[in-house]
């Protein structure tokens, strides 16, 4: 087209630059889409694991003790505070457990103060029975 005089070289340069920019933007968007698909591919599996963990919590907790019980409760426990004067234990329980370092509510402080329900028990055994 340039050789036959239909368009000028300057016009062709501008058109080619626009086409190259469009191609680059499309390739970048394609890469972002592929990354997003990989990132979200494991979320369904994670969701199923969390549901299973929640469904079997009571049964697993009733058979566990010591360090095994502590590790079972740890993802669900946002905070625990013991008042020495009243001998009351206050637990803040997450609605969604913190798994693999993922706090699905936001920051740890926000989870403890705003999102986690509060459970106050006169003794450790009363808390475990309330959780079961």
Features of the shown structure:
132 residues; three-stranded antiparallel β-sheet; alpha+beta; rod-shaped; 3 strands; single chain; 6 helices
Helix-and-strand structural type: alpha+beta
Distance between the termini: 79 Å
Are there runs of 5+ residues with pLDDT below 50, and where? 105-115
**Proportion of β residues?**
5-15%
Q: Helix and strand succession?
A: HHHHEEHEH
- Biggest sheet strand order reads 1-2-3
Specify the overall morphology: rod-shaped
What is the count of DSSP helices, taking H or I runs of 4+ residues? Answer: 6
Please summarize the sheet with the most strands.
3 strands, antiparallel
Helical percentage: 55-70%
Overall pLDDT level: 76
In angstroms, what is the radius of gyration?
Answer: 28 Å
Number of strands: 3
Write the layout of secondary structure elements.
Layout: H1 9-41, H2 43-55, H3 57-63, H4 66-73, E1 77-83, E2 88-93, H5 108-115, E3 118-121, H6 124-131
Antiparallel strand pairs: 1-2, 2-3
Question: How does this model look, in words?
Answer:
The protein has helices at residues 9-41, 43-55, 57-63, 66-73, 108-115, 124-131; strands at residues 77-83, 88-93, 118-121. The chain is α+β, with helices and mostly antiparallel strands and 132 residues long. A three-stranded antiparallel beta sheet has the order 1-2-3, with helices on both faces. The N and C termini lie far apart (79 Å). Residues 105-115 have low confidence and may be disordered.
Describe what is shown at a glance:
Helix content is 58%, strand content 13%. By secondary structure, it is α+β, with helices and mostly antiparallel strands.
